[in-house]
Amino acid sequence: MWKPWWMEGSGPMHEFAAALVYIVAVIFLVLLIVIVTGKVWREIVEARRRHKRRELEPSFFRYLTNQGPLERYLPRAVRRSDRPVIEQIFTDLSKVVKGTVRARIRDASERLGFVDHHLQRLESRRWWTRADAAEKLGMMGSEKATWALIERMNDPVPEVRVRVARALGNIRTSDALRPLTRALTDPGRWSAIRVAGILIRAGDESVQILLEEFQKLPFHAKISAIDIFGRIRSLNAVMLLRELLRNEEPDIRARAAYALGSIGDPNSAPDLVAALKDRAWAVRSMAAKALGRLKEGESIEHLCAALGDQQWWVRANAAEALRNKGTEGVDALLAMLDSKDMYAAQQAVQMLQESGVLDHLIERLAAEDGAQRQQALEVMAKLVKLKRTDLLTEMAHNHPEPSIRQRLAILLGLRVQPQTSG
To answer: How far apart are CA 176 and CA 167, in angstroms?
Structure first.
């Protein structure tokens, strides 16, 4: 009868091999039992949590949409085993709700002891526990956690510091946001981009703190603060930004102009028009771009003048700004085709072509309205005079409308193709 190799023979080596096989088999069997048991146990726990969530969730929704203490809406007293489920419900809701509903979540979290629990975890020796605790405290938004989180701003682990900063940004009180504005001053320890993103999410609350702290900030932090003002688009920062247009640093002036354009207050137009004559081309360029975002028409004349600037970026932004002004701006670009300044005229052509205005005018060459057709012909003649005939030449050969091809060919001095009768 055949036997496995490890059952054949005798002696110490045979006994050692047999024992080794048995040990390995037992280990694999134990591991299999542990894995299967663990999976079954996790499924049981998850099933229980889903059942508890279905039981408790309606009560919490009633609490969040009404007034009064939490106990009034619960079907029974909260048990220790309910706490993970309740905290998960609050965590999920905190990601999507604001205002009074968020305040109700904060009050319930404090009343049920969740805040105190995570404040204890914030002192853990394990950094991942501290990071998780900071994140949970931020979602709860409890002011009670402010000072403990501020102390953790100096945590030796960067990930903990980042989550602490986010938590303070979610709390959004003056005490919570002020340390974040100061974090902008320490680029070696903090990522300015990350801190700026947190302050932007905090909105107008962070604007007020930055306005109070602005003069104390170093240069690089002022740059970040100006960018934050523009991203938040708060009218509260407009007065400071207008003053910064006269700052001695060109980078600050340029960023202030850009921020004013992002905010879009039309009352800033006179200050931006003055910045079109700044000695630094970057400031002139950003001022032109900003004026294109304002809903006013008084700056059109000044933008037309900027089309003749020696710097290409200034001319390009001025042309784009005129296009953004709507019909009045496009009319101004068309008028600039007659400019004696070759830079201005050429930049106007470029923008009219990029914006599709020239394509629209070419279509008018076949219009039944004589006035529209004549206007289009006059514009085409100006393009020929400026030697900007690339688009016209292409249309003269490839446009599907024979009458348009014929008129363009005559303007360009090309051989006229006979029209085919339909």
So the answer is: 9
- Mean pLDDT across the chain, nearest whole number? 87
CA distance 57 to 75: 11
Question: For position 40, what pLDDT does the model report?
Answer: 87
CATH topology for 233-334?
Leucine-rich Repeat Variant (1.25.10)
The identity of residue 310, as a single letter, is Q
DSSP code, position 92: H
Residue ranges per domain, the chain? 233-334, 356-422
DSSP secondary structure letters along 374-412:
HHHHHHHHHHHHTT--HHHHHHHHH-S-HHHHHHHHHHH
Q: What is the pTM of this model?
A: 0.76
Rounded Cα gap, residues 172 and 154, in angstroms: 19
Average pLDDT over residues 142-169: 91
Per-residue tokens: 21:
């096989």
DSSP notation for 146-160? HHHHHHGGG-SSHHH
Whole-angstrom distance, CA of residue 46 vs CA of residue 42: 6
Query: Of the candidates 247, 242, 270, which has an alpha carbon nearest to the alpha carbon of residue 257?
Result: 242
CA distance 258 to 241: 10
pLDDT digit string, tens, across residues 340-366:
999 999 999 999 999 999 999 999 888
d(C-alpha 384, C-alpha 389), whole Å? 6
- Give me the DSSP letters along 75-132: SSPPPGGGHHHHHHHHHHHHTT--HHHHHHHHHHHHHTTHHHHHHHHTT-SSHHHHHH
- The yes-or-no verdict on residue 421 having pLDDT over 50 is no
